[in-house]
Amino acid sequence: MAPSAVPDIATVADLQTALAAGKPLLLYFWATWCEPCKQMDAVVAQLAADLPGLSAMRVEAEVVDEVTLKYDVTTVPYFVFIKGGEVVDRVEGADAPALTAKATALARGGSAATTSAPAAKAAAPAAAAPAPESKDAVFGRIKYILDTWPVVLFMKGDAGTPRCGFSGRVVEALRKLGVTSCKTVDILADEPIRQGLKEYSNWPTFPQLYVKSELVGGCDIVTEMAGSGDLEALLREKLGADFAAVSAAAVAKHGGAPSPAAAPAPAAAPAAPPAPSEAPDAVRARIKDLLSGPQPVMLFMKGNPETPRCGFSRKVVEALQSENLQFGTFDILGDEAIRQGLKEYSNWPTYPQVYVRGELLGGCDIVLEMKAAGELGSTVNEMLHRMDVA
After folding, report:
1. Could you tell me which Pfam families the record lists for this protein (predicted)?
2. What whole-number distance in Å separates Cα of residue 379 and Cα of residue 376?
């Protein structure tokens, strides 16, 4: 994310200084990988400029663990409103109108000088915020995408850097059939598409693969079809014998995601290298040993189940426990080499990370989404069974 005009809280001492100033405070929790945070950064900067009665500060949620845990933050973007040292309101998600309305109300109550002209000025961001996209407009965008590209994958991330194990498996299934170039849509960067497609397709989860505008299915169906040869048969039927070239030609003509082979190096590359005393190969060997240990479900987290060191880790522990799933854990805060090495190993930049028999299930957002859909326990058990009989 580009440098922000909003100051950052990097330590608990920074937070204490901000609270001691006595001004109403807006804390904005964000993460580098979250696309909606880039949009909300500009909204927060505008609010900070327009509301002199309010202090606004950013907190990188997965870096400043103590502050994130203190305010029970488990998702980003997330906003906490504080007055007199007490939390008075919250906003979850990239909801610019709600954020503007609540920030304006807090600023008005924070200083008598904001009761007239400044208050009217502060309302400007709300007026300028884009209206929510209508259902017809979202469906129109979905239909355009499906009509333009013969093979479309709605996924988390892109073909070069999938952001969940399920998306990665569908990309791999297509790649093995020679479809190294197709249209991918990152639903993490487009919330209207993410929500609208569930109704459009009557299919509640992601990824979703379409061929010639028709839904093929999600990860389980695609991987099963790939294994039986039915996926190749479907592609031949819909696109012809040279289906890989047809898909590539459409991407070349209309634009789309790069193929995995042509994609840039994984995002984990800029991460700090493992400790100098331990070679990368040795770190990878230790990771493999951890993933092949006695517990088939493994959670790499901050802290441990009894004392999680971040809200994201705590939420995942609670989700796994609620499904009566047995799992092992590893505290990445106690091993910097594993903490950095696992990012490259999994091509997943954040923590926590959940694995089933050494295969990445996903992070906090994936686990909580599956839990909310009633699919977490069944998916883990299906993965365990599939790997047992493989």
Report:
1. Glutaredoxin (PF00462), Thioredoxin (PF00085)
2. 5
- Contact between residue 309 and residue 61 where contact means Cβ atoms under 8 Å apart: no
pLDDT in tens, 329-388: 999 988 989 998 998 898 887 889 999 999 999 888 889 889 988 999 999 998 888 766
Can you give the CATH number for the domain in which 92 is found? 3.40.30.10
For residues 257 and 164, membership in a common domain is answered with: yes
Q: DSSP alpha helices (H): ranges in 274-375?
A: 280-291, 311-322, 336-346, 364-372
Q: Answer yes or no: is 5 within a domain.
A: no
Domain range for 104 is 12-128
Strand bridging mode 55-60 / 86-92: unpaired
Task: State the average pLDDT over residues 29-36.
Answer: 82
Q: Tell me, yes or no, whether 284 and 236 share the same domain.
A: no
Q: How far apart are CA 319 and CA 89, in angstroms?
A: 25
Is the same domain home to 313 and 343? yes
Respond yes or no: is residue 364 known to be catalytic.
Answer: no
Same domain, 122 and 139: no
Per the CB < 8 A criterion, the answer to whether 309 and 370 are in contact is no
Residue 330 CA to residue 352 CA, distance in Å, equals 10
- Residues 242 and 291 occupy one common structural domain: no
What integer best gives the mean pLDDT of the chain?
83
* Residues in Cβ contact with 77 at an 8 Å cutoff, skipping those fewer than 6 apart: 28, 29, 30, 34, 36, 37, 40, 93, 94
Domain count, the chain: 3
Rounded to an integer, the average pLDDT of 218-239 is 92
34 tagged catalytic:
yes
Residue 124 and residue 143 in one domain: no
* Cβ 122 vs Cβ 107: under 8 Å: yes
pTM of the model: 0.54
